[in-house]
Amino acid sequence: MKNSPNLSCYLYLKGIVKLDSFDEKYLESIKNIDKNNVINQIETLAKFHKSSMGCFLPQNVIKNKIGRMVLYNRTSLRKLSLYFEKIKSNPKNSFEELLTCRGEEMIKRAETSLNHIYLGEYLEIIKRSMKRNELCIKNSYFDNIRKNEKIEILNCDNICYDMVEIDGLYLFIKLKSKNNDFDYKELIKFFIEAENLTKESGDFMEALLSFPYYFMKCAIRYIDRKKEWQEDYYKKRLIKSIEKDGESII
Amino acid sequence: MEFDELKCIVEDNYGLSPVKIEKIKNIFKITCDNRTYSLKVIPYSKERLNFILGAYKHLIEKGLNEVLDIIRTKDGCDFIEIGHGYAYLNNFFDSRIVSYDNPFELSLSAKALGRLHKFSRGFKINEEMDIRALWGLWPLNFKNKERDILSFKKEIINKKEKTDFDLGYLSLIDDEVVSIEQSLERIINSNYESLMKEEVVLEGFCHHDFAHHNVLINSDLDIKIIDFDYVVLDSHLHDLSSLIIRKMRYNKWSIEDALYIMKSYNSEYRIIDEELEVMSGFMQFPQDFWQVGIQYYVEKQPWGEDFFNKKIEKIYLDREGKASFINKFDKISYKQVIK
Q1: Of A46, A228, B28, B263, which one has the fewest beta carbons inside 10 Å?
Q2: What is the 8-class DSSP label of residue B70?
């Protein structure tokens, strides 16, 4: 479902403009991202959230995705755990061998991430987001949102109700995919300050960022065989995923 | 229905002057100068309307906050005739649909459901109502559905050219029939009969379509339950078990979520120990499998082969998770629910 013109109008009134593309010079400049760029992007996101929150539009205009990311992580974990139990004593190929070798550690890491979330202030964060009608852009990376005189965005089809923390996480997860070795604890701290959130939000973000997102994604792709890749290619992807996920920060 | 025709009906019956009328799913959103309303159409007989509206009005009269008040016509009537059916008017509730993926909204919804069941007690039926009742009929109902599935099997076998859906459906039938038999056995061996006898005298009812799109939430976090078209005289366990399934089907099975729903519900409507076994039997029944068969072979819904193929694949992929969930559900203790 595409977001309706109502949303574009609403965003425009809030000082957020939708463009068709960013200029070449800018696109070139975001090929090498440093810490300052990330800090600026965090400030841009904070401004976007501050300007856009409080909007109450019906379901057919903005989707409600609160809780989806955590739920997705939980279902991925369950699926992988079931599969892992099946293959661990008899891996059939090189991919499954690698999965059995690293699977237990990753499953444990995912469980720890989810336990931290559920034992923390997850419900309170949800309530805050609902009360303030927080909007998320979802694709919060440099190639979709930037700040000039106004906030400029390209794709607003994925704008939805969610917790502002999720936009920060999308940015950090994307940075991880590019193997950017930042101090994510520090960046989360900066995000919390820019968004004026509590320490509990920081704990939530640290826990969610420690989830082995890329490992799970690759393993689930193999389990579901949605992509017709050879086992060796899956194996290469899994090795890359482990690099992308980096170390847990909790 | 044309805008002008509907506008006249609203003007004549309610004395309102609509400036805009929009159709949103099964309601009309009617905007007047200073207020907005929703007109819900009930495309059934007068007797069916009496039952649906009777149950709905019972909840309003009992003071349930989670339903919208009905606006009466100039003549003091609760409904109007429209096309080949009827309709009733509410103030438009500026809201969005809840998401059962959001644990906070899930908890609010489960509590609202518990309150609905509590307030439904004491509903008096009369001869002018075309009632739907399922008291004590779950085993019979399951048996009838099993018969439907076996008739689909015959139909598929006799088909000369089988579609992908036919083959997918056929490959699952024997296993699903086993599930039905097990589900029936659980219900029959449980205290279902005596529980129903105790509950029927309370004269309550079920919403029977407690899907997330029938639960609305506004920015003050107030909940409203809408659309009582499928209301049925039956145990509260029917709605509660269905809510658990709705939340968890298609690979989201989780005993923690089931407990979370039951605890929220229990804070408004007390669950008793013996009911867990009945719920387990109800949840084991492959309702989705039966329903997609009805949609394909009986109703012949024009949703395309792709839709049905995807649906049967989803059901196939969900079976392991569901079976494992039912096993775990059987092991939970009553203390875990009320703790």
Answers
A1: A228
A2: P
